[in-house]
UniProtKB/TrEMBL annotation:
Keywords from the UniProt entry: Amino-acid biosynthesis, Cytoplasm, Diaminopimelate biosynthesis, Lyase, Lysine biosynthesis, Schiff base
Naturally occurring in which organism (per UniProt): Paenibacillus silvestris
Name under which the protein is recorded: 4-hydroxy-tetrahydrodipicolinate synthase
InterPro entries membership: Aldolase_TIM (IPR013785), DapA (IPR005263), DapA-like (IPR002220), Schiff_base-form_aldolases_CS (IPR020624)
UniProt GO molecular function: 4-hydroxy-tetrahydrodipicolinate synthase activity
């Protein structure tokens, strides 16, 4: 399964009371597909504030996303947690909604061993038929899904890809030995071009909410052999890649969207909106 080169980890739009703004879901999806050229969307991931969404909100948001995408891009639903039983239960519910794949994060906080990680992902994969994308983000989970464990998991038939926020050394080890057809995506915007240069298939991005078209051009330049143009565009975009994570995400990218006239509201506690000074800095990235 090919999810494309630039995948957007979509924010969840909220209203003034920080309830999901259901009326804004379709316009946001249309904007990301049509204007920012997203090949796929991750719904209810970290950027979608999954930790503060309840299961009912997630199910409705995923169901609407599948409906509103209308086959124009693939929908990848975040269903992972640090409880294997709940991950299985929720993944089975989401599978019935017609998603193209499930994004399963490495269990956080309880910090399992590599064997525990393998058994967790294996159990989830065996419980569903839909494709599974692993999600390794050590900075948030407190545990690294090692290259060797990822390679081992890549041989399970419906584990088809990984989103890995590790450095290019780990990505390279995975690329060298993973099962044929297993796709590796970088989860770090600033590492998009370096990751693609060592063979990664693409990027799962936050910045693509506002510079998705430019990121598609950067990837296209590189794949067509226009290395200098790709590198120049990477350097031009780099301040945005870094700047939108100056304070905890997704507050900065929601502010950046608002500057473009795309209203997705604030963020739920324990996250907070950007300050006036932080907002001015974000605005300066696009001047």
């Amino acid at each position: 399964m090919d999810f494309g080169r630039v995948i957007t980890a979509m924010v969840t739009p909220f209203d003034e009371q920080l309830q999901v703004n259901w009326d804004q879901v379709e316009p946001l999806i249309n904007y990301l597909i049509e204007e920012q050229q997203s090949d796929s969307l991750v719904i209810c991931g970290t950027t979608g504030e999954a930790p503060t969404l309840n299961d009912e909100e997630k199910l409705k948001l995923i169901e609407l996303s599948v409906r509103y995408a209308r086959g124009r891009c693939k929908i990848i639903a975040g269903t992972g947690s640090n409880d294997t039983a709940h991950t299985i239960h929720f993944s089975q519910k989401v599978e019935t909604l017609g998603v193209d794949a499930l994004l399963i994060v490495a269990p956080y906080y309880n910090r399992p061993s590599q064997e525990g990680l393998y058994q967790h992902f294996k159990a989830v994969a065996e419980s569903v038929k839909v494709g599974i994308m692993l999600y390794n983000v050590p900075g948030r989970t407190g545990v690294n899904l090692d290259a060797e464990t990822t390679i081992r998991l890549s041989h399970i038939s419906n584990i088809v890809a990984t989103k890995d926020c590790a450095n290019t050394d780990q990505l390279t080890r995975i690329l060298n030995d993973a099962a044929p057809g297993f796709l590796v995506y970088s989860g770090d915007d600033s590492n998009a071009l370096p990751a693609i240069s060592v063979g990664c298939h693409g990027i799962i991005s936050v910045a693509s909410h506002v510079i998705g078209k430019e990121m598609q051009s950067m990837v296209k330049y590189y794949l067509e052999g226009n290395i200098q143009q790709a590198a120049e565009l990477h350097r031009k975009l780099h301040p945005v890649f870094i700047g939108i994570f100056r304070v905890p995400s997704p507050a900065p990218i929601k502010h950046a969207l608002a500057l473009k006239g795309i209203q997705t509201g604030g963020v739920r506690l324990p996250l907070v909106r950007v300050s006036e000074q932080e907002g001015q800095f974000i605005q300066s990235l696009f001047v």
